[in-house]
């Protein structure tokens, strides 16, 4: 099997680029995890064994090389109603429904199997660093991988590493920061919550993406406005990046798959959804939150409504207060009503106050101070 045969097949299947690297351990990532244990403790608490993935031999002892495929998740435009609420990388995610990318990936592994090559596709290997080691891209100060050749050298891509028991000649690594010297660290300055505290250094616990699907309590008051209208994920550091400007400026055709489900993801539907709706309409596409944590979706939707500053959401918020028992959802509804203002919000909050106690009551009193 020659590298050119693998490349040809990958391109035939619609992957944008492909590279090859060795099975060497990722020592730099070991150092990061060991030196920043507090910041990454939540990963291990959730049973995600990142350390195992730092040595590819732990995953496939007979592995000899790593093939990295590059897929572009933003080849088509997404409906405006979804942008600014959901990270683009999640809008056409088919890891559960297996409708398009999964089929192409399965076909690629079938091609390897037909040529007597075993493969494993680990989730816990450093995907972006593996791709950079395979010469497919360089890093931005925001920690994203930027392509060397495709997608107008943007970060609108997904690297997919595959460990194989066949030795391929590795490509020349490009493990470096590729940001232009004239860039004044726009991504760091624009990070709403300060999660990006220095070039290539992020505190994941402050990242809006982390907060949107892992935060255990109500969003802290001091960052509610900064989180803005994001419900699931965040693209802020990529949107302001000058390296992405060319790709983001394109006039792309609409993604019909995402358009077809866009109504399901409207903020009002998320705020009022029941478990059946979540299981059938939302979870198959955005699945980081389990079935017993729909409160977080509703809290995020309520917060986003408040940060739109659009009074059209007041009736939805008022109705949802009585629909929900979770104090985190009720608390965020109260905060959003205070942020939206208007007399009808004040009247609703005053009525809620009569039947509330504890943390919810505290949030209502805080919201009423906005009037």
UniProtKB/TrEMBL annotation:
Pfam families per record: Fer4_16 (PF13484), HEAT_2 (PF13646)
Record-level GO BP terms: tRNA queuosine(34) biosynthetic process
Keywords, comma-separated and alphabetical: 4Fe-4S, Iron, Iron-sulfur, Metal-binding
The keyword Secreted belongs to this UniProt entry's keyword annotation: no
GO molecular-function terms, A-Z: 4 iron, 4 sulfur cluster binding; epoxyqueuosine reductase activity
Residue intervals of the 4Fe-4S ferredoxin-type domain: 171-201
Protein name, entry field: 4Fe-4S ferredoxin-type domain-containing protein
Originating species: marine sediment metagenome
């Amino acid at each position: 099997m020659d590298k050119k045969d693998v490349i040809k097949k990958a391109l035939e299947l619609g992957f944008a680029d492909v590279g090859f690297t060795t099975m060497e351990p990722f020592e730099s990532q070991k150092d990061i995890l060991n030196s920043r244990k507090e910041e990454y403790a939540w990963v291990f608490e959730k049973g995600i064994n990142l350390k195992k993935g730092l040595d590819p031999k732990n995953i496939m002892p007979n592995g000899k090389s790593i093939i990295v495929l590059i897929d572009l998740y933003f080849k088509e435009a997404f409906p405006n109603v979804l942008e600014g609420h959901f990270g683009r990388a999640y809008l056409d995610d088919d890891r559960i429904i297996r409708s398009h990318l999964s089929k192409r990936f399965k076909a690629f592994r079938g091609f390897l199997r037909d040529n007597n090559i075993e493969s494993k596709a680990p989730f816990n290997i450093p995907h972006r660093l593996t791709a950079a080691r395979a010469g497919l891209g360089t890093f931005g100060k925001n920690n994203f991988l930027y392509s060397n050749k495709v997608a107008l050298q943007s970060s609108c891509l997904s690297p997919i590493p595959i460990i194989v028991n066949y030795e391929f000649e590795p490509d020349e690594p490009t493990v470096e920061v590729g940001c232009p010297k004239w860039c004044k660290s726009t991504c760091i300055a624009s990070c709403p919550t300060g999660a990006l505290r220095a070039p290539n250094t992020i505190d994941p616990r402050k990242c809006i993406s982390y907060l949107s699907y892992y935060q255990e309590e109500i969003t802290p008051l001091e960052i509610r406005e900064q989180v803005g209208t994001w419900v699931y994920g965040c693209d802020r550091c990529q949107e302001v990046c000058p390296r992405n400007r060319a790709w983001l400026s394109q006039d792309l055709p609409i993604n019909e798959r995402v358009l077809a489900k866009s109504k399901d993801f409207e903020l009002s539907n998320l705020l009022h959804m029941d478990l059946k709706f979540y299981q059938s309409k939302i979870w198959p596409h955005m699945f980081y939150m389990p079935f017993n944590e729909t409160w977080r979706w509703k809290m995020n939707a309520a917060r986003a409504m408040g940060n739109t500053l659009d009074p059209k959401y007041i009736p939805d918020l008022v109705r949802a207060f009585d629909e929900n028992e979770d104090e985190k959802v009720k608390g965020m509804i109260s905060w959003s009503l205070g942020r939206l203002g208007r007399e009808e919000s004040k009247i609703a909050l005053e009525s809620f106050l009569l039947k509330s106690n504890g943390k919810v009551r505290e949030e209502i009193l805080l919201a009423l101070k906005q009037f």
